[in-house]
């Protein structure tokens, strides 16, 4: 009987241990160490105000998807895309991105996952159906999402995206995704 009381709790912990090992393989420890700093970005007053202002526009999901389709089909940057790279929130994102050499790309989303501001042009306007938004926005609860490590051929680097909620009065009103160049992060951590 003593054997069963020891084994039972271990079996309950086994899935947690396996999940932790899988996460460690996907996101290096160096990434985990900077997550608290990135979470603070989610309360930056400039970014909070920008997300709040876009949410107040009340765009329907149909409108967002229409803009998304036009965005994807555009063969070159449109004035709307340029506006999202040059508004006050984009300037704040650029300042944050330049704070460390390993930050690669940063973009801000509203409460539906539509872009509000960005440092680099994203491949689409609406992130609302992607884990980077759904898991960090978490139905208004807010959470941290660390994506999979991927090789980016245009950057010639291994990148990971960390997404954090944009919080206002204890509620998620948007999300922020930060691309991290893992090679540069490793160099800076030495």
UniProtKB/TrEMBL annotation:
Q: What's this protein's name? A: Uncharacterized protein
Q: What's in the keyword line of the UniProt record?
A: Signal
Which species is the source of this protein?
Imhoffiella purpurea
Q: What superkingdom does the record give?
A: Bacteria
Q: Does the keyword Signal apply?
A: yes
Residues in the signal sequence:
1-24
